[in-house]
Amino acid sequence: MRFSLLTGLIVGGLFFASPAQAADDGLQWSWDGDVKRQYLLRSQVLLPEFMQFNKEHNRDARVTEFLVSVITTCQAVVAIGKDKHELKCVIDDFAIAGAPPQSDQGKLKEIFDEVDGKLVNGGWMQLIVTNDGRITDQDLEGVDKSNSRNRSIHEVLRQVLGRLFASMDLQLPRKGVDPGSPWQQKSSPLAMHFPSEFGTFGSTDVTHQINSNTAGKVEITTTGRGSLGPAEFISVRTGSDRLKNTYDLSYRGVTVFDTKAGTMIEHEYLVEGMPTPSSMAAEGGEGVGYVQMTRLELIPEGSKAPNLGPNEEIDPTRQYASGIQK
Questions:
Q1: Total domain count for the chain?
Q2: pLDDT tens digit sequence for 48-107
Q3: Cα separations (Å) of 243 from 37, 111, 201, 291?
């Protein structure tokens, strides 16, 4: 399950590569007809707060970070107007590794194996996507929600898969035409959201720019900053409400889009952030940061998908000074 997410698109030379070159028109997703595409999605998330995973029968464990991979096959099931589609993205394979706090060690493997079975035996993501690359809604379907325990399991899996499928969300230029200059993302990209049952609240400033074009393979670089947090509010002495925790986030990524096929073929990004001084997570110190590294790869038609390997319990990759590991 161990893997290196950032393959060089960001930390190598490409992110600061040559000046922009003219791109072909056609920077739009195409889901017409019976198009099916298979993707490998990977994400590593270092959490500022615990996330709890449950089994159906009275077994649970928390994680401070997780590494997750999915093989998914996506197909449009219905067109919505002229510029949207509903996609069904079937979970073909799934693997997860997580780092628990000391008190929960030895519990994760059996929990992960159970949720793995839930996803690969009928689980799928419903995505509402626009032709210009935005995901306007998403949900996990095909996983039992018949009682409160199963609803809790479903919600955590929805959050985890949301970090993976966020890699398919990137706003392309208007009408798919290269504007010849950078363009702004209209809404907060899902890449900058948190895995939280409360959703995400805040503001962002994200810019995309065409970096190069080689035979219809267009490289787009993305940079951004934002002030966001899980949409969990607390009351303060003044009688007003504010976010419990807000994070100053940075975002940088690289996308390779195939204008002839109408799909991303690669997308890689890094999101990092620390809590603001007024956040509860920062009280008594600088707090624990949030890190997300995510990568999408298109699996070429006719190619064999990789083996994702077993689910694992792993050691944390960073030290936690504020008690989160207890």
A1: 1
A2: 889 999 999 889 999 999 999 999 999 999 999 989 999 999 999 999 999 999 999 999
A3: 39, 31, 8, 19
